[in-house]
Automatic annotation (TrEMBL):
Residues 1-18 form the signal peptide. Coiled coil: none annotated. Residues 184-278 form the M23ase beta-sheet core domain. Keywords: Signal. This is M23 family metallopeptidase. The keyword Signal applies. It comes from the Bacteria.
Length: 290
C-alpha cells in the first residue's frame, strides 16, 4: 500500500511539474540562415543547456530573459549552408539537484534565395599576396570577436533598423563576382548616399572599428548574449573600440569604402558566431519583450 502511495505521489509531482514548465519555439519552422528563438518557462531551475543534433553538434547555454519573469531563452542561429530538414534539439536543466531532459524538433526549410551577378574592378576582385594576408588576418580577428559571448545583456529595448531607406539588396542573395567567385550576400543593403547618418540598432559596446579590405570602414556592436550588429562601408566612424553606444546614436556616416560598386550601407548580424539574416534576427529578438 505504501509503495502504491509513493508511486502515485511521484506521478502527481511529475505531472504538476510538467505543467509548470513550458518549452516552445517562437517559430518552429525557419529558413536556412535565420535564427530560432527557444523559450523555456519554469521556476527554480539552473544550468539550462541545449544541443542541436547534427554532424556538427551545436551546444548553447540558455540565457535569463530580463524582460520576462521565470523565463530563459536560447538563440539558435542556422547556417546558410545547413541542410533543410527537421533537427532534434535536446534540452537539459537542473531542478532540486536533479537533472532533467526534454527534446523538441526544429524544422529548417530552404530559403530559396535569389541570384545576382556583380562586376567589380580587377584591382579589388583579385587581391595580391599582401591583400590575401590582410583579409585572412581581418577574418581571424573578426571571428575571435564574434565567438566571444558576453554573459551580460546590454540592451533593454526593441531593436530598430540602422536607417530609413530602400533596401537595394536582400540578405542571402547568391552572388557571382566577375563570373568567377560564388558566395552569398551576408547582409542587407540599404540605399544611402555618401554622408548619410547611420544609427545603432540597439545599445552595446563597440568591438570593431576598423578599415577592412572587403567591408571598408566597419563598426561592429556587441549587444551581449552573443548578438552582434555590423555596419559596413562607412565614410566616417564616430566611435572606437570599447565605446558604449546607445540605441539610436549616430555611429557614423554611410560611404563607399571597401570592395563595393557604389555607396550604400551593408547591415549584418552575427548570433553565437554565425552569420544570419539581420532583419529576421531583429524580428525574433524583439519577441523577447512580448
Amino acid at each position: 500500500m505504501m509503495i502504491k502511495k509513493l508511486i502515485l505521489l511521484t506521478l502527481l509531482f511529475n505531472f504538476t511539474y510538467a505543467q509548470e514548465l513550458k518549452l516552445f519555439f517562437e517559430e518552429n519552422t525557419i529558413k536556412n540562415a535565420q535564427t530560432a528563438l527557444l523559450r523555456l518557462q519554469a521556476k527554480d531551475i539552473s544550468n539550462a543547456k541545449l544541443t542541436l543534433l547534427d554532424k556538427e553538434t551545436l551546444n548553447l547555454n540558455f540565457k535569463k530573459n530580463s524582460f520576462k519573469k521565470n523565463e530563459y531563452y536560447a538563440l539558435i542561429p542556422i547556417s546558410y549552408y545547413k541542410k533543410p530538414k527537421k533537427y532534434k534539439v535536446i534540452i537539459s536543466y537542473f531542478k532540486n539537484d536533479k537533472k532533467y531532459f526534454k527534446s523538441i524538433k526544429l524544422n529548417v526549410i530552404d530559403g530559396k534565395y535569389k541570384s545576382e551577378t556583380i562586376t567589380v574592378s580587377k584591382s579589388k576582385f583579385k587581391p595580391n599576396k599582401q591583400r590575401i594576408k590582410r583579409t585572412k588576418q581581418e577574418y581571424k580577428d573578426a571571428m575571435s570577436v564574434y565567438r566571444s559571448i558576453s554573459e551580460k545583456i546590454l540592451w533593454n529595448e526593441d531593436f530598430i533598423y540602422p536607417m530609413n531607406s530602400k533596401i537595394t539588396s536582400a540578405f542571402g542573395t547568391k552572388r557571382v563576382y566577375n563570373n568567377q567567385l560564388k558566395s552569398y550576400h551576408s547582409g542587407t543593403d540599404f540605399r544611402a548616399k555618401v554622408g548619410t547618418p547611420i544609427i545603432a540598432s540597439n545599445s552595446g559596446i563597440v568591438r570593431i572599428a576598423q578599415n577592412r579590405f572587403y567591408a571598408g570602414n566597419s563598426i561592429v556592436i556587441d549587444h551581449g548574449h552573443g548578438v552582434y550588429s555590423c555596419y559596413y562601408h562607412l565614410s566616417k566612424m564616430n566611435f572606437k573600440v570599447g565605446d558604449f553606444v546607445k540605441k539610436g546614436e549616430t555611429i557614423g556616416l554611410s560611404g563607399a569604402t571597401g570592395r563595393i560598386t557604389g555607396p550604400h550601407l551593408h547591415y549584418a548580424f552575427r548570433i553565437n558566431g554565425i552569420q544570419v539574416d539581420p532583419l529576421q534576427a531583429i524580428k525574433i529578438l524583439n519577441k523577447l519583450n512580448n
